[in-house]
Specification:
CATH architecture of the largest domain: 3-Layer(aba) Sandwich
Strand content: 25-35%
Mean pLDDT: 95
Number of helices: 8
Helix content: 25-40%
Structural class: alpha+beta
CATH class of the largest domain: Alpha Beta
Shape: globular
Number of strands: 18
Largest sheet: 9 strands, mixed
Number of domains: 2
CATH topology of the largest domain: Aminopeptidase
Low-confidence stretches: none
Distance between the termini: 42 Å
Amino acid sequence: MMRQRLRQDLIDLMMTPGLSGHEERVAKLIRSRLSDAGISSRVDRMGNVIASFEGDASSPSVMIFTHMDQLGFFVRRIEADGLIRVERMGGVSERAMAAQAVTLCVGEGRDVPGIILNKAHHATPPDEKYKVLTAPDIRIDTGHGSKQAVEAAGVRIGTPVVYLPRVIELAGDRIAGTSVDDRAGCASLLEIARGLATRDGNGPSVHVVFSVQEEFNLRGALVAAQALKPDIAIQIDLMLATDTPDMEDRGEMRLGGGPGISLYSFHGRGTLNGVIPHPAMVELFEQTSESLAMPLQRSAQVGVLTDLSHVQLVGEGVASIDIGFPMRHSHSTVECCDLGDLEAITRLALAAIGRIGPDFKLTRET
């Protein structure tokens, strides 16, 4: 039953566009699913969706969160011939852009389809065949043929653009397509919220947060944490699967091998930020996975950054950890995850939260 709910939530979320700063459609879907489960939620000024579950006031409070936005582009110019120029938003893989289908997000029921132009192979000289265009160089064709027609369709400077939402159901309960990062995290967090709504006993107070603008330099979760002031923060996001030939030297994270925890992340590219998790949180998840007889994978990566890097610094400091699901082909149109990993991370998170009581040690003393 959980697996089927995760599948349906993930598919519906992947098919709903939500560029950073324009997550309203995703938020609407998430709030609808929460409401269906009898869970009330609210939206803050940034656009974060928050559902709170009151618990034992003597136990540390928990914020468990994931981001609901996706990367893409913004329209920067419409040429006289109707071709559209864009700026990238977030870590768009420019190697993966050419010849992709896109959606220009004008409004529900009014979105405009387009394609990223790719020079005909027969006309491409040798010195261009291995050149990767940057986002400012590409052009998008909507078929309209003129600036006036494009604008009449509702496209303007600033219109959000995402890769055409699609879902590819592979063998073995594996799902590929657009925005698995981090709609898979959202599907898991929805299931965690359902579990918290029906939990036995009191447990700690838990704030479930679906955050905005993660792909735009980690914005929304920080605002939520400043308001909620949690003692503990648990972030759910992808972890780079390293079980393909192109990634095997980066670690030991296997798709279908169960959830993982990050022991070290550091961006290292302009944003000098990252997370070294709180030892008590590492111990919590290691002991919980052992009690569930569940494998727990480990990750340590440079080039990775999550909202948690800012959330951990709120107030007096927050005991923090990144947990995640293995994912292949990050920031492409064929991101891939395994539903078994999503189910496992959901069960792990709920069980770990259930072990947090008044005696949970928040300091780093040995």
